[in-house]
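Subject: mismatched residue count in predicted assembly?

I count 539 residues in my input, but I want to confirm that the predicted structure covers every chain. Input:
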Amino acid sequence: MTAYLNPGLPKPAPAPDGLDAPYWEAVAEERLVMQRCRACGTWQWGPEWICHNCHSEDLAFDEVPLTGRIYSYERVWHPVHPALNEQGPYIVVLVEFPDHDGARMVGNLVGDPRQEVRIGATVRAVFEHHRDDEPPHTLVQWMVVDS
Amino acid sequence: MNRTLRGAAAIVGVGETTYYKRGQSPDAEFKLALKAILAACEDAGITPKELDGFASFSNDRSDPSRLANALGIHDLRFSNMQWGGGGGGGSAAVAHAAAAVATGLAECVVVFRALAQGQFGRFGQGPRSNVVSGGGAFTVPYGLMSPAQSFAMKVQRFMHDHGVEQSALRAISLASYHHAQANPRAVMYGRPLDEAKYDASRWIVEPFHLFDCCQENDGAAAMIVVPAERAKDFDHPPVYILSAVTGSHYRAGASVHNTPDYATSNFKTCVPRLYDMAGCGPDDVDVLQCYENFTGGVLMSIVEHGFCEPDECNEFLTKENLLAPHGKLPTNTSGGNLAECYMHGLELNIEAVRQIRRTSPNQVDDVDVSMVVSGPMVTPVSSSVYGSEATV
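Triage response: the counts match. Full output below for your records.
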């Protein structure tokens, strides 16, 4: 897909400590992953070194479905970064994975930035690749499939 | 042993610099801190050399050792910083100062906050780096990066869950601006706000209009804390700390907006401790100062401090109910962060003290119990309750 936001915002890079590297590798291949505890099965996001439930260090990055539910959203009007000065309004959504301990991810809602947004609507992941950027990276955006 | 701070310490002096729009202070930030501390000492009637402790929050840049040096303090005993950003530490710093004097770690502690955003950076702007990693890598590239943007997401969900209308947020803003018109110290003094002007103001991020968002200011504020047994040795009637607590709930600090109980001002675990220590409940609170980073934080804080049920916000949050002197819950009676000054909420603690001293520009009748809510939606947050002589 074409980029949702104008270019020039800070680009995401894997954390220097390596904690989130498997996520960035997965989204480049259009897979969506979150941390899951091998010991107790708890899902968690964002990534951490131990499981918040049982404190095991044995955490994997497991695939989650490419669909989730809008938990909350916001339409941003005021640019707080020069890259967004000519952007106009845009929508940020907080997407929940109800079957994965309610873990959530943040992305943009593609389509008309003035569209009505319904909390609870089902959305599907859309991968926005920036392979020629430095560092190369992939953003995960969301599209309403059932409003 | 009765483990409580209730009545163990008192505020005996308060001081503020002139409050400026951001970037307009003629003084450097450190000089602002000194001026507020000197003003608080003068208000208390003490020499600054008597101070022996400093408590602040939000990574204040004015280092206690440099302050002690500049003030000629003989015996520095306490230098304390509450971790966490925004104004979440405004009442926590008071708690720490009270704990220090109550336990004999120190005798005379100043709680202070100084800000000069011309000299240093602004709060309401996104990062200017080319690359972001860690938690920000999952939000900033989507244009979710400022405090307003981080908190609008919570408020939107709360309003959805409880059917809260925009008029509730508007009432909070109107009350602050109304009170500021009687306060010559307020940056928005002489700049009243009405419904039409609010409604016509631009969106920053839905559901926040321009007037739902705090100012950014330059200035400094300071409060002098002493043990209760010395409280009556000063020029003003003492204002006792009945309670001051800090904290946050389960996984409030989860990154990428993953806090399980999400649509909250983060006070749910603090409030029972706050009232337990104070020995009172919401019905006993005569006047409230509630930190407006954004009006939505006030909305959820008022609910979580027990002043109204979540599904009653539209009825309870009217301008009339929030006005001094006769509203049900007079709130932000100096103009607050929206219209007096954004001194990271320490100016709210000072206004809470003024209400008990009977010197507020919007004085409520017969105030004995005066509450402050500090920094909703950040983590950790804090709250405090102040009482008159009659309460201890």
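The interface with chain A takes residues 124-146, 148-149, 152-154, 156-157, 160, 202-206, 251, 254-258, 260, 262-263 of chain B (CB under 8 Å). Marking this ticket as 'not a bug'.
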